[in-house]
Amino acid sequence: MNFLTRLTLAIVTSLTYIHAAEPIITNVLPRGGQVGSDLKVTISGNRLQGTEEIFFYGDGISVLDINATNDKSVKAKFRISKETELGQHELRLRTKSGISTLKTFWVGPYPNLHEEEPNTSFEEAQRITINHTINGVVKNEDVDYFEFNATKNQRISLEIEAIRLSGPLFDPYIAILDSNRFEVATSDDTDLLLQDSTLSTIIPQTGKYFIEVRESSYRGGNNFYYRLHVGTFPRPLIAFPAGGEVGKILTVNFMGDPSGPIKKNIQLPNKENLEFRYRVEQNGSIAPSPNAIRVCNFPSILEKEPNDSFKTATTTTLSLPLAFDGIIEKEKDVDYFKFYAKKGQKFNIHAHAQSISSPLDPVLNLYDDKGKSIKGSDDANNGRDSLITITIPQDGNYTLRVKDHLYAGGDRFVYRLESQPFSPKVEASIPMFGNRDTQTRQMIPIARGNKTATALNLSRKNFSGELEVIAENLPTGVTMRVPKAPSNFNSVPVVFEASKDAPLSQKLVHLKVRHTDPEKKISGEFKHNIALVYGPPNNRTYYESTLNKLSVGVTEKIPFSIILHPPSTPIVRGGSINLQVEAIRDANFTAPITLRIQTR
Fold this sequence. Notes:
Blueprint: H1 3-9, H2 15-20, E1 24-29, E2 32-34, E3 37-46, E4 53-56, E5 61-67, E6 73-80, E7 87-95, E8 98-99, E9 103-108, E10 112-114, E11 126-127, E12 132-137, E13 143-150, E14 155-161, E15 172-178, E16 183-187, E17 198-202, E18 207-215, E19 225-231, E20 238-240, E21 243-245, E22 249-255, E23 262-267, E24 277-278, E25 281-282, E26 285-286, E27 291-292, E28 294-296, E29 300-302, E30 314-319, E31 323-327, E32 334-341, E33 346-352, E34 362-367, E35 373-377, E36 386-391, E37 396-404, E38 414-421, E39 425-429, E40 444-447, E41 451-461, E42 467-472, E43 478-481, E44 491-498, E45 506-515, E46 523-526, E47 528-535, E48 540-547, E49 550-555, E50 560-565, E51 580-585
Parallel strand pairs: 2-9, 10-12, 11-13, 21-28, 29-31, 30-32, 39-46, 40-49
Antiparallel strand pairs: 1-3, 3-6, 4-7, 5-6, 7-8, 7-9, 12-19, 13-18, 14-17, 14-19, 15-16, 15-18, 20-22, 22-23, 24-27, 25-26, 31-38, 32-37, 33-36, 33-38, 34-35, 34-37, 39-41, 41-44, 42-45, 43-44, 45-46, 45-49, 47-48, 50-51
């Protein structure tokens, strides 16, 4: 029996027992804290007693104290360093019996206040000072009011974290009102933060002002938590240009702030980063959330007006791959770009708008040098952005045209057209255990002296050949066995084994996938897309996070072991065979043992 077959059979293990004992986190309160501070938190859930470690996927937050005296809650103290990145941080905890499900914790720039009831009417508004973050909850049909003082011509900005706190489908509404209850500014959904709201306004007169916070359709509940940032911080809504070339200094206009555009010279990373984000800072105050700037390996071309026809198209002598940046700045505006491409080149030409927080609904068309349409695209990948996949038919000049679907326009209708070349890509992931379940069995607990197995899906694009999987930073006493994956394999079994004396611990493991031929220089890594908020229609994902490390930990010994006797003949595809499984119990262990196949 070959190694691959033995590993496949090893997937029937004691993993079910370990997962039955793993801890579950249902909430972390408060939902966030201030950068550079210490904070007491309560983590609630199930099977939490004996928590030994709370760990984060990012840097900057350390745990000073853990008090886990019962199964339902853990008291802890977090130290948030001054270098901690603002925004979302993913965490888990480890007990002697397992690794928990994932929950998020948020870091903001301001000291925190707690909402104090009653504040459900204008007359009972809670008094606050600006440049603070309010931790609150909106119960059913609840409206929260806050009162603050502001001076004429002062910029006041609000930003709320609600659906992003990964609880229920919370669609917030915020507003600033004057003392006569007239609205100064309001916000529901935004292009920048989707369901979450943000607004920024210049105060017209010195005096008292009020903030209103509610769910947009007056829903709510005991778990409708929010974090409302109130301050004088800048709040641009989009960056232009929305990307640049690696290693370059990019001059960016951040637009949408009521004080006008904010210009910054930004040193871009020396490595391609399509998820690069930049937080604008001005007068010592920083925006709580960033703006998108895509960093690519190829040059960027800025539009030159007028470029609203084939004859006036912004033209470059450079050939693809390229990026083109522009703005559909008024109604019925159309932009054209002319470039050179070579026969046989393959590209994905992507119109980025929604992905960079633009209100533009782009329509993209590609023409040859005679003005003949080659290909067009409207919506793609379940979103507003457009995508053209093309193999260049012949050497020559080509023209891209971009417009809004309804011919709308404005100063924030920014776009970025990227011609990403077809290149080899590989990615590894653990399959979902159940429908709409991105948490179960996405971490690897291994009992001392035992094994845990999982399947690893391998997604390949634009190449063939054998792949190997390598683990970096495994816990002490843990080894990993995985066969090489031939070209026709899109999944491999992986077995982790812990020695009998392995320390109880966990590590965030970097799993790499690479071509076995070093000349190919093809590699990728593990990725876990974790859905944090589901909602209608069809229970779709509204908010998610992406992790690139796998949590692997050693748990205490379990009171039995499993021996799977290999069959004498191979299992044919589509066939069945009886397997002999032997359970060896410790002397005092009499509970039932359930065995399941790891994948379906």
